[in-house]
Amino acid sequence: MPSSPLPITPEVEADLRIVKRGCDELLVESEFAQKLARSHQSGQPLRIKLGLDPTAPDIHLGHTVVLNKMRQLQDLGHQVIFLIGDFTSMIGDPSGRNATRPPLTAEQIQENAKTYYAQASLVLDPSRTEIRYNSEWCDPLGARGMIQLASRYTVARMMEREDFTRRFKGGIPISVHEFLYPLMQGYDSVALKADLELGGTDQKFNLLVGRELQKEYGQEPQCVLTMPLLEGTDGVDKMSKSKGNYIGITESPDSMFGKLMSISDTLMWRYFELLSFRSIDEITQLERQAQEGANPRDMKVMLAQEIVARFHSTQAAHEALAQFEARFRDGAIPDDMPEVQAGPAPLGILKVLREAGLAASGAEAQRNVEQGGVRVDGTRIEDKSLQLPAGTYVIQVGKRKFARVTLS
């Protein structure tokens, strides 16, 4: 950093407000303000890094929380680097895990990586995105380079990680190769000369390792921006394909719209904050209108249409709304309905109907399905053996019986 701090102009302050919107932490904010000021003064864009390991073939809305932030930084004129962790995927990120994560094969990684950048480009501007693979610099390190890298970080520092400490105290094995993951992620920042690295709150330790390694290699340390982990449609656990509470960004417009309409009115504001491109002032105004008596469903429609339009088209968003409303034309969805917790998921539709109080017995539940009187999120159910995964659903029986059921 320059010995004499640069002035923080109104333009820099405006940029900082955009960067900090919805974030969990910005470390160190004063350092990043100086980086922004220097960038404004010199016209040199900052290098912004986001690394994602292709551990699954699809990206969901939870991933886009940090991708949205990358797009905001991109629109501010900075150079964003979308880093695909093809090398680190072979180690397996131990963050937040209670057991050693099985590493992926090179074939699995290659297959998953094919779709990652294409899907991320639905959020980022591909013409202004630098795409890199960390095997570029990790493979050439070799055994000698890995030993030299490992010498720059202590075991004591590594054991400050909460999940490592918990596993060690609990007698749960920690493999030596797991220590390599944060080192290699940190080395990515050295190789890319990153000014700022983004990640979820569960990545904070790894991101800070990057700062320390940059100092070791004589570079100015990157700043760290952590984003909250988005809750899934159940409003309980973080969005995850394995928990069935996710909304994939390549899902059909109807499916995406229906899932967004199924979230609770409370969770809707969290989604607005982390997923919407509307201004904070506009979102605050919408929330105030809801508190003063406006129907929250109207706000939810606005959110669902915005998200569908982003990943499909405005026309698709209009059609999804029309399809959604057509499903309930014979009996409108009530603003208030019973909220029911059930489970464990997956749970059969007949049992769901009984637990939600929509059928007095299994025989009645079966009869309702067979007669075509049961709908889940507006879709008529014909299979009485249907198993519902974890998630939140609007269950309808006939024209007037409704419940919002959360399975976990």
The main sheet comes to: 6 strands, mixed
* CATH class value of the largest domain: Alpha Beta
Number of distinct beta strands: 13
Strand content: 5-15%
Task: Name the structural class.
Answer: alpha/beta
CATH fold group of the largest domain? Rossmann fold
Q: Please name the CATH architecture of the largest domain.
A: 3-Layer(aba) Sandwich
**Chain oligomer state:** single chain
The CATH homologous superfamily name of the largest domain equals HUPs
Overall pLDDT metric = 86
Q: Please compute the radius of gyration using only Cα atoms.
A: 24 Å
Q: State the distance separating the first and last CA atoms.
A: 49 Å
- Bulk shape: globular
Q: Main sheet: which strands, in order across? A: 1-6-5-2-3-4
The helix count comes to 17
Number of domains: 3
Q: N-to-C SSE series? A: HEHEHEHEHHHHHEHEHHHHHEEHHEEEEE
List unreliable stretches of 5+ residues.
Answer: none
Classify the helix fraction into a percent range: 40-55%
InterPro entries: aa-tRNA-synth_I_CS (IPR001412), aa-tRNA-synth_Ic (IPR002305), Rossmann-like_a/b/a_fold (IPR014729), S4_RNA-bd (IPR002942), S4_RNA-bd_sf (IPR036986), Tyr-tRNA-ligase (IPR002307), Tyr-tRNA-ligase_bac-type (IPR024088), Tyr-tRNA-ligase_bac_2 (IPR024108)
Protein name: Tyrosine--tRNA ligase
Domain RNA-binding S4: 347-408
Function: Catalyzes the attachment of tyrosine to tRNA(Tyr) in a two-step reaction: tyrosine is first activated by ATP to form Tyr-AMP and then transferred to the acceptor end of tRNA(Tyr).
